[in-house]
Design brief:
Radius of gyration: 15 Å
Order of helices and strands: HEHEHEHEHH
Number of helices: 6
Strand content: 5-15%
Distance between the termini: 39 Å
Strand order of the largest sheet: 1-2-3-4
Length: about 130
């Protein structure tokens, strides 16, 4: 709507919904700082959006770390290439919500993958 991101945030809130904001790999994390106090979750894309099964981009982790340091109570979600092998890279710098479609649906042991992902986040949750 007219009024930019702040107007959209208000429209979503006024509709009784929670608000999230997404940061693509090429977007500077500082560009969302003015809105973070008004959202419930920030999603850091760890791949370019659009195609499932892409490789995790560890160079996006500084964005997660900066957000966690600046906004300690924020839900920080990461999406793209997350698996039991990469989840700790994200969780150790502050991600507390994980999206991992290919790792789960591509496995014969989906529950095992989910358990491993959860354990990777829980390991750093108290930190």
């Amino acid at each position: 709507p007219e009024g930019g991101p702040q107007a959209m945030i208000k429209l979503i809130r006024d509709s009784g919904m929670r608000v999230g904001m997404v940061v693509k790999p090429g977007t500077k994390i500082e560009s969302i700082f003015e809105y973070v106090s008004d959202v419930d979750l920030v999603l850091i894309m760890t791949v370019e959006p659009g195609f499932s099964g892409q490789k995790f981009m560890p160079d996006m982790m500084p964005k997660v770390k900066i957000l966690r340091e600046k906004f300690p109570n924020l839900n920080i979600q990461v999406d793209g290439g997350l698996s039991p092998e990469t989840v700790e890279q994200a969780a150790s710098v502050g991600a507390n919500v994980i999206v991992a479609a290919s790792a789960i649906f591509g496995s014969d042991d989906r529950q095992g993958v989910i358990n491993d992902l959860r354990a990777g986040v829980e390991k750093y949750k108290a930190s």
